[in-house]
Each structure stands twice: as C-alpha cells, then as structure tokens.
Amino acid sequence: MIVENRLYLASIHLQNFATFKQETVYFTPAFNSIIGETGSGKSLILNSLGLLFGDRSEKKYIRKDCNFAIIEGVFEGLNQE
Questions:
Q1: Which residue, among 29, 75, 20, 67, has the nearest Cα to 48 in the 3D structure?
Q2: What pLDDT, in 10s, does the model give residues 17-46?
Q3: CA torsion, points 7, 10, 16, 22, in degrees to nearest 10?
Q4: 62 touches 68 (CB < 8 A)
Q5: DSSP string, 25-80
Q6: Which of 53, 52, 42, 50 is nearest to 20 (CA)?
Q7: CA–CA separation, 24 vs 10, rounded Å?
Q8: Is 39 exposed, middle or buried, given 0-12, 13-18 or 19+ CB atoms closer than 10 A?
Q9: Contact at 8 Å (CB) between 62 and 70?
Q10: DSSP state, 10?
Q11: For a disulfide at 50, which of 39, 55, 73, 75, Cβ 3.0-4.6 Å?
Q12: Which pTM does this prediction carry?
C-alpha cells in the first residue's frame, strides 16, 4: 500500500494588503472557487496568492496610509491511502 502525503493551502491571512485591512480566506482540500461581484476583490486575492508563492511585490499593494503589508499562508497535510 502506498500512502501519499499532500499539502494544501488551508488559509491565507491578509493584513494591510491593497483594500483589505485584516482578512482571512479559508480553503478546503477539495475544489475551491473565488466568486463575487465586480470590485469585490477577487483579483486581489489571486495577486496575494501569487505573492505567497514567490511573485515580486509592488508598493501599490500596501494599503493607503500604512507602512507595511503582511500575507501569511497556512498549509496543512493530507494523507491519502
């Protein structure tokens, strides 16, 4: 029997990122989708995921009147048999 260990992104926490003051987005190990109305921040969440995985940042992502932005990702493991 082969047991595979897999990681998945359980949540991403955004602080002072673009229009988000303090926000946490939770994910499941199954299918996830990001939906919402125009202007609700879907693209910003995708940009934050890119930064979490190594994209270069730009100063424009720091919330107005703030000195810094933080993006934190929480990864969890799954054992699949």
A1: 20
A2: 999 999 999 999 989 999 999 999 999 999
A3: -170
A4: yes
A5: EE--SS------STTSSHHHHHHHHHHHTTPPP-GGGBPTT-S--EEEEEEEEEEE
A6: 42
A7: 10
A8: exposed
A9: no
A10: E
A11: 55
A12: 0.82
Tokens for 47, please give them.
Answer: 């940009």
Residue 60 sits at φ, ψ, to 5 deg, of -65, -20
Tokens found for residue 7:
């990681």
The structure tokens listed for 29 are: 């190990």
Q: For the sheet with 4-17, list strands across it.
A: 20-26, 4-17, 70-80
Q: What is the pLDDT of residue 21?
A: 96
Q: How many residues does the chain have?
A: 81
Tokens for 41, please give them: 């921040």
